[in-house]
Amino acid sequence: MVAAIQIENLKFKYAEEDVLKYINLHVPKGSFVSILGPNGSGKTTLLKNVCHLLKPYEGKVVISDQLVERFKSKELAREMAVVHQGANTEFDFNVEDVVLMGRFPYIKKFQSETLEDIAIATEAMKKTSTLHLKHKTIKGISGGERQRVMIARALTQEPQILLLDEPISHLDIKYQLEILKLCKMLNAENNLTIITTLHDINLATRFSDYIILMNHGEIVEIGKPFEVMTKENIRRVYEVDVEIVKMDQFENPMIVPI
Ligand SMILES: Nc1ncnc2c1ncn2[C@@H]1O[C@H](COP(=O)(O)OP(=O)(O)O)[C@@H](O)[C@H]1O
Ligand SMILES: [Mg+2]
């Protein structure tokens, strides 16, 4: 299978201690992958190594057949968009301008956006149900709306790969589902490779092709949801006991804490 992302023997540390220890990973193009694991297990650090915000001290990250450090920043932004945890609301831009910022890898120096850029941004706002917010300011909308706006901005980058760090953590169940369904639709229709960190083990199980289960900076298990989300693995990583329940209408099992 063609790899969207290939990681070999990656090690990373902020100070002395290794935060990522010997990570090996192959993400097939067009797959929907969730990274699960307790707080502090290294999920965000791994995503930041993938998008080259952080640099491993050992090992390599290959994006679409090229070492990540070989990409020019605009080239990488055309390949991969990232929605970081917690939208940056330091500056109070309006929603449409925030979404249009996603066109930066395509706009040449001293040029302004074209009608095509605006059309792409508008389409992204339609897909994320944020078009009606376009004249509001980013501070003047709810957390769920802001999260959808940040996804709209990522989509205007027209990337091949979308990285999301806890995209649904502060949302109610309606918006959690809406965002995951949107990601699934983009994944299915545009063959967009999705890699997202999540805390909800049931939603991850339901939506993912593959799950990466992390603990203490290591990948404990990687595979299809039913292979990874076993009683034993959940006990080992989260220290809780669960029942695994198969429901007819879903391909993947439900996980019930006991
Ligand atoms: N900027 C930083 N400087 C030093 N240590 C950090 C920094 N960011 C995260 N860490 C540490 O790295 C470990 C992994 O963190 P993180 O990748 O944020 O985990 P997760 O996203 O799974 O909660 C934690 O022990 C955390 O305290
Ligand atoms: Mg995190």
TrEMBL record:
One of its GO terms (molecular function) is ATP binding. Keywords: ATP-binding, Nucleotide-binding, Translocase, Transport. Coiled coil: none annotated. InterPro entries: AAA+_ATPase (IPR003593), ABC_transporter-like_ATP-bd (IPR003439), ABC_transporter-like_CS (IPR017871), P-loop_NTPase (IPR027417). It comes from the Bacteria. The keyword ATP-binding applies. CDD domains: ABC_Iron-Siderophores_B12_Hemin. Residues 5-241 form the ABC transporter domain. The keyword Cytoplasm does not apply. This is ABC transporter ATP-binding protein. It comes from Fusibacter ferrireducens.
